Amino acid sequence: MSPDILMIGSFLLALLLGVPVAIALGLGGLVGIVSGLSPDMLATFGTNTYNSVAKYPLIAIPLFILTGLIFERAGVAASLVRFAQAIIGPRHGSLTVVAVLVCLIMGGMSGSGPADAAAVAMVMLPSMRKAGYPQPFSAALIAASSSTAILIPPSIALILYSIVVPGVDLRALFAAGLFPGILAGLSLLVPALYLARKFGWENPEESERPPFWPSFKAALPALFAPVIILGGLRSGLFTPTEAAVVAVTYGVIVGTLVYRNLSFRNLFDLMTDAAVTSGVVMLIIALAGIFAWAGTTLGTFQHLADALLSLSDNGWVLLGLVMVLVLIAGMLLDAISIYLILIPIVLPLMNHFGWNPVWFGILLAMNIAIGQFTPPVAVNLMVTTRIANIRLEHTIGWALVFIAAMSVSLLLVMLIPGIALWLPEQLGYVVGPW
Fold this sequence. Notes:
The chain contains 20 helices and no strands. The chain is mostly helical.
């Protein structure tokens, strides 16, 4: 049996047996080294794991994870929900608009879908239940809306993509994700508003509109967070990694001095949680380095890319096939694992067909976002259903509706690259060849 098959097969078998993704990646890499290279190459284990994580931009990941936790527990979501309700007012489906809008804004603070899902669900689910929305519908909508965090800058997944794909400007990726993220959010509103009006959920006469100016004043510190992060990046005041430090600092100030929902004891607990989460992420990245080195040295990734190229000479056919593969992977794996596993395989395809790397990165992110609320794994759905105290399978019907809606926005960005590339081009960022 060839080393390629042994490496990929051992990795997939480990996943099927329930082995954690990080360990499965490391195990697959070790099997590839032992079966296809000299056993002496096992000595590279330490060097490869270290080189995988010893990259300056990766510092931003634990810091943005901490930022998300700080804003989640500082009460930011509650102030944003009240402000959004003051803008939209009582009407059929207004709470669906509020949920999507708040998820988009929260995505501009943390870059993490599960963190946004938890923060918004804690505030929105009781209100939507009181207004007559079925809990499975509400949980599915919030899970789908929070998945846009992977697109709205700062996105942890896009940070990793900029590291894995050489020569991609992270600022261009951040700018490119903004309009597709908004488009994805709007695509979810179409079926949500239709269903709310069809079934008569949320009687406007039974809802109260919060006063605008007090709500705006309370939400202003939260609204400034994305402005500070993106404004600083655009002006060149700080790099994306430095932006993560600024975001944490601003979050601490807002949480302790403005909203006063955080104490120094809370901050210690938050840093502990962020360290644990970051440790899991970094372990995946480190052991994926073994898998990537073995696959590159053996030529496994090139062989897989050649096999895909042999299926068709049409770039659009293969792009559609890649999107299907990424969607399936998104149903089973987290975004970080998908980038680390699939990008070495699809990178030769991207170079062969001349796909724009920034546009292609956004397509991958949109596809992974759909996977975050697609069963059986559906990490965002797991969060919202746990908070709603319902079973995940009760949400499948509603989730399918939102999967179809966001797939339409993915198709639009695929057919019209300018949706993603216009803003970074206007801002003067390098978006690569087309």
